[in-house]
Amino acid sequence: MRPQRSFPTPPDRSALSPSGLRLGDPAPWFSALTREGAAIDLHVDAGRWVVLAFAGQCDDPRAAHELAPILAAARPEDDDHLVVYVISDTAPALGLPSGPGLGVVIDADGAIARRYGAEGTPRTVILDPMLRVVADIGWDDRAGHADTVRATLASLPAVDQSCGVPMSAPALMVPRVLDFPLCDLLVRLYDMVGGEESGFLLDHDGKTATVVDHRLKRRRDLVIALPDLRETIRDQVVRRLLPAIERYFQFAATRMDRYMVSCYDSALGGHFFRHRDNVNAGARHRRFAVTINLNGDYDGCDLVFPEFGRRAYRAPVGGAIVFSCGALHQVTPIRRGRRYAFIPFLYGEADAAFRRANNDLLQAGEARYGDDALDRLLPLSGAL
Q1: 320, 173 Cβ separation under 8 angstroms
Q2: pTM of the entire structure?
């Protein structure tokens, strides 16, 4: 007779956090301005420990005591390990330092506090480098808020040890996608024609536009318009890259946009600050980003996925790195030489319809999307 198995009773998840947040769950993202007017987007702060100190009225006599261990742990000019946001109902009179590692957010309407269950109940919420809740400590904590926060912050390991084991980004490396003669041709074409300043997408009032800010990105791009050259690239991508994407990511890409050669130049300080490729209203159709290196004689300028540690990723010449457009990533500053790369986005037919529907979300002056046959991969290149 088979013995009866006894399963433990699941815990009451609602009781795990006084605010209603469940420890281990993803934290709600928000965008806001610091007291000094700097724009912040929580999703960009991934890859560090994040402390959200909901202080209610910062000028409450008790606030100085409860915030003391947080401010002691913060390094305003260094956000490599820890980022702290003090979230207050009103602008505090007390003078707090500010910088990349410490900011004060005025949540006058309580919108952020409500999302974290902190309206009227001051508390400190700590997020891990993947922006999941690992601690939620109310000012009424039985062990004492300040002492508990102090002990918790002191126990946080280095970012690369945040998981307890080494982490790897969910990125696919595929060698030998573009052959060497084609890589050399694309590099020579760029050197002969030159590139134009490359901006990035930014939303304002619900509309997406391209902006240029060298603090966040410095790159020059050359759009490839020659039909025969586009067809050669497309054929090699379809034959050598799409099967791997379908096998390992279970995604059948049918379209590819952005036929262009990009150049990060050390003479110009080439780099691209941490970002995601599909969060803007006009870019939500993007599914997978592709980076194909065209040369290898340079230093720096590697891909890093901060949510998964500080490891640098670099594809071989002609090889591709493929990753979800939802992954936070950055291109580290180039220290020597020039890096040339082919960097398209892949998407599918349902995404193409979504892309066209997003035309109303593009600011005036931005190129509108159409049913562009040049983006289609399979009809023009044949079956796999």
Answers
A1: yes
A2: 0.86
